[in-house]
From TrEMBL:
<dbReference type="InterPro" id="IPR008808">
    <property type="entry name" value="Powdery_mildew-R_dom"/>
</dbReference>
<feature type="domain" description="RPW8">
    <location>
        <begin position="1"/>
        <end position="146"/>
    </location>
</feature>
<dbReference type="InterPro" id="IPR027417">
    <property type="entry name" value="P-loop_NTPase"/>
</dbReference>
<dbReference type="Pfam" id="PF05659">
    <property type="entry name" value="RPW8"/>
</dbReference>
<protein>
    <submittedName>
        <fullName>Probable disease resistance At5g66900</fullName>
    </submittedName>
</protein>
Length: 212
């Protein structure tokens, strides 16, 4: 089977649980309980997908997580083959379903939350790095414009016209939980640098992204 991203493998597992729960009454209780657990961890899976899209590397343990989802889907679909008149097999597979649910819940409580916390710090570090890089670019541009020597980091202008609405919109986007990064794009002379400086010096943004 081709390797799936965590979200895709998770969706296949959730679909298998829903389908088999409707088809096989003898495992309905265990599968409905598993479905509830999957619903509770879905936000974490979505966070992992978003972080993977922002960071330049896949999270460590992503392959392990995919394997867990794929193994879970396989286990759930095997329940379709268990006959009602085979109580031993029913007992064994009911136990396997409970063990899978427990191991998955434990993995998310320990490993995944630790990785999300780590990658959240990496995003904060990335914001600081981008700010430093932007400051250097601005200084180089100032030098090329006729300033002598290495200029200090330019402060936010005391009087800025026409950016209040854009600033508030950008802040609202950045402070949303589901938007860890926003791309600022516009033609030259439209105030991208000034708006970026305003954002980087905004108290709410600095506190949220731990900008020193």
């Amino acid at each position: 089977m081709a390797e799936l991203l965590g979200g895709a493998a998770f969706d296949l597992l959730m679909k298998a649980v829903s389908d088999v729960a409707l088809t096989v009454a003898s495992f309905r209780s265990e599968l409905n309980h598993l479905k509830g657990t999957l619903t509770s961890i879905k936000p974490f899976v979505e966070d992992i997908e978003k972080l993977n899209g922002v960071l330049d590397y896949r999270q460590e343990g992503a392959e392990t997580l995919n394997n867990r989802f794929e193994q879970g889907e396989k286990l759930v679909r095997e329940c379709l083959k268990i006959k009602r008149w085979n109580p031993i097999q029913k007992y064994l597979y009911a136990k396997k379903l409970k063990e899978f649910e427990s191991s998955l819940l434990w993995y998310f409580q320990i490993n995944v939350q630790a990785e999300l916390a780590r990658d959240g710090k990496n995003i904060s570090v990335g914001v600081n790095f981008l700010q430093e890089k932007m400051d250097k670019v601005i200084s180089i541009q100032n030098n090329a414009s006729g300033f002598s020597g290495w200029c200090g980091v330019p402060e936010v202008p005391d009087f800025v016209v026409g950016l209040d609405v854009l600033l508030q919109e950008m802040k609202a986007m950045l402070l949303k939980d589901e938007v860890p990064i926003v791309v600022l794009s516009a033609p030259d002379g439209y105030g991208k640098t000034t708006l970026a400086k305003l954002l980087c010096n905004d108290d709410e943004i600095r506190d949220s992204f731990k900008i020193s």
